[in-house]
């Protein structure tokens, strides 16, 4: 829980490192569980492995009157919460806290700020990118 | 004399236009009826600051499927009647268990399974945790730990977002929810917030049965101990031979070390939902359709043995 949710842990362009971290994600969104070799990991190891960091690519798409970003695809630490995506986008748009901004995944639903980016990526990515739509008034309820 | 209209038919037509009754489902009903007795105590420092050191606790039997936001008006009223001078918004009220702030957008039963049962199993403690002792705060909202909602009815928006996310996992779009009329969508939340099983399930079964179409993925979240990030990934309900997967197969996909396909020794972990540990040979699609929380997700809390 230490630094997740902090906007500072984002690494904006860094397209190359994203390639490394994410090799084949565009074809296989769900990593196949590896054949267990040797004895199973202990619960402590399992929990530690699930806290590891990774990156996900996010593509921002403006809707309606929302300003368009010059750069649309960013690499974001996957263990971050969706809140980090919200805060990052606000910073890019130079929006104040009071300015209304609504974010959706795949033009369909609005994740809670504490959802994990990696989970959203695994479940909803399109061609290796998590599509995040944003607008200044509620669009899909 | 003209023939009397067929009474049975008339009432059937009339009722189907308003709302369909919930289908008979004893499993969904007992899950809906699950509850947790809670003892709400006012934060000592807050009470002492206004010179009220001996304010009585508030006892409430909360439905497991409900949310703390839905109890806030009752809780606030109790403490206002006692001593509290509170002119703030109900969205300022927050709850903690043993110092951990509780998420208002998680179902109460899920919070109890995580912070009560999972945590006490981790300490090797046994003995009853009931009534569940919750501390109520009317000040100092921990905005760094809990989502700060603009209003108390944000809970409804978060709930509907979960329903849509679940629909997206099952169908690759939210058409099933978006094609519902506004009042049909509202019926889900109204049924939940008024603890009306028939109202909720009368609408929810349409989402659950998915028009008989096999879901692409099941809406499942898995909670490991020690504030490990929640696990959610695409989980197909069927294997490569189109046979329904069991809960064990599903859990094995995400946590192969904790849930081997063939148990060779004593199990190292158990998966809990609604406070019980279902048989892992249970069909996963059946579990999803019958044992999901009202937000349409199966929330599995992992207990390490």
From TrEMBL, chain A:
Subunit and partners: Forms a conjugate with ATG5.
Topology of the protein relative to the lipid bilayer: Peripheral membrane protein
Any one Pfam family match given in the protein's UniProt record, by short name: APG12
Compositional bias (Pro residues): 30-42
MF (Gene Ontology): Atg8-family ligase activity
Family statement: Belongs to the ATG12 family.
Protein localization: Preautophagosomal structure membrane
UniProt KW Glycoprotein keyword: no
Functional description taken from the UniProt entry: Ubiquitin-like protein involved in cytoplasm to vacuole transport (Cvt), autophagy vesicles formation, mitophagy, and nucleophagy.
Domain of life: Eukaryota
UniProt entry tagged with the keyword ATP-binding: no
Region named Disordered: 1-53
Gene Ontology biological process terms from the UniProt entry: autophagosome assembly; autophagosome maturation; autophagy of mitochondrion; glycophagy; piecemeal microautophagy of the nucleus; protein transport
Bias-annotated ranges (Polar residues): 1-18
Keywords noted in UniProt: Autophagy, Isopeptide bond, Membrane, Protein transport, Transport, Ubl conjugation pathway
Higher taxonomy: Eukaryota, Fungi, Fungi incertae sedis, Mucoromycota, Mortierellomycotina
Protein's UniProt name: Ubiquitin-like protein ATG12
GO cellular component, one term: autophagosome membrane
UniProtKB/TrEMBL annotation, chain B:
Matching Pfam families: ATG5_HBR, ATG5_UblA, ATG5_UblB
Keyword Cytoplasm found: no
Domain Autophagy protein ATG5 UblB: 217-302
InterPro entries linked to this entry: Atg5 (IPR007239), ATG5_HBR (IPR048940), Atg5_HR (IPR042526), ATG5_UblA (IPR048939), Atg5_UblA_dom_sf (IPR042527), ATG5_UblB (IPR048318)
GO molecular function, one term: Atg8-family ligase activity
Domain Autophagy protein ATG5 UblA: 31-138
Keyword Transmembrane helix: no
Gene Ontology process terms (BP): autophagy of mitochondrion; cellular response to nitrogen starvation; piecemeal microautophagy of the nucleus
Main location as per UniProt: membrane
Membrane topology according to the record: Peripheral membrane protein
Ranges for domain Autophagy protein ATG5 alpha-helical bundle region: 153-209
One GO cellular component term noted in the UniProt record for this chain: phagophore
Compartments it resides in: Preautophagosomal structure membrane
Domain of life: Eukaryota
Low complexity bias locations: 10-22
Region feature Disordered, mapped onto this chain: 1-24
Function: Involved in cytoplasm to vacuole transport (Cvt) and autophagic vesicle formation.
Quaternary state and interactors: Conjugated with ATG12.
Protein name: Autophagy protein 5
Species the sequence originates in: Entomortierella chlamydospora
Gene: ATG5_2
């Amino acid at each position: 829980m230490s630094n997740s949710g902090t906007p500072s842990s984002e690494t904006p362009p860094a397209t190359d490192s994203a390639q490394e971290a994410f090799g084949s994600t565009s074809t296989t969104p769900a990593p196949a569980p590896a054949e267990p070799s040797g004895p199973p990991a202990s619960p402590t190891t399992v929990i530690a492995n699930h806290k590891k960091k990774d990156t996900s690519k996010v593509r921002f798409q403006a809707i309606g009157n929302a300003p368009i970003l010059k750069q649309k695809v960013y690499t974001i630490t996957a263990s971050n919460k969706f809140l980090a995506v919200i805060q990052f986008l606000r910073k890019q748009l130079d929006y104040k806290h009071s300015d209304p901004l609504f974010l959706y995944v795949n033009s369909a639903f609005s994740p809670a700020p504490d959802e994990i980016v990696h989970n959203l990526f695994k479940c909803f990515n399109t061609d290796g990118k998590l599509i995040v739509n944003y607008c200044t008034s509620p669009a899909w309820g | 004399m003209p023939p009397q209209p067929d009474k049975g038919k008339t009432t059937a037509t009339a009722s189907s236009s308003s709302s369909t009754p919930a289908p008979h489902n004893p499993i969904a009903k007992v899950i809906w009826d699950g509850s947790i007795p809670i003892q709400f105590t006012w934060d000592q420092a807050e009470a002492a600051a206004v010179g009220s050191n001996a304010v009585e606790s508030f006892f409430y039997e909360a439905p497991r499927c409900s949310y703390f936001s839905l109890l806030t008006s009752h809780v606030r009223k109790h403490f206002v009647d006692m001593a509290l001078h509170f002119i703030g918004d109900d969205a300022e009220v927050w709850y903690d268990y043993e110092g951990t702030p509780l998420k208002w957008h998680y179902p109460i039963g899920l919070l109890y399974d995580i912070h009560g049962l999972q945590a006490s199993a981790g300490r090797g403690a046994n003995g009853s945790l009931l009534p569940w002792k919750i501390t109520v705060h009317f000040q100092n909202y921990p905005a760094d730990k809990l989502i700060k909602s603009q209003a108390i009815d944000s809970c409804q928006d978060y709930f509907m977002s979960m329903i849509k996310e679940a629909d997206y996992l099952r169908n690759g779009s939210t058409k099933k929810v978006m094609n519902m009329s506004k009042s049909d969508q509202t019926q889900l939340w109204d049924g939940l917030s008024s603890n009306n099983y028939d109202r909720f399930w009368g609408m929810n079964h349409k989402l659950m049965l998915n028009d008989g179409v096999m879901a692409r993925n099941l809406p499942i979240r898995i909670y490991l101990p020690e504030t490990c990030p929640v696990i959610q990934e695409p989980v197909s309900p069927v294997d490569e031979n189109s046979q329904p997967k069991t809960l064990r197969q599903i859990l094995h996909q995400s946590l192969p070390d904790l849930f081997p396909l063939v148990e060779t020794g004593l199990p190292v972990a158990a998966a809990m939902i609604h406070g019980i540990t279902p048989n892992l040979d249970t069909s996963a699609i059946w579990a999803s359709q019958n044992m999901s929380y009202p937000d349409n997700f199966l929330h599995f809390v992992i207990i390490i043995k």
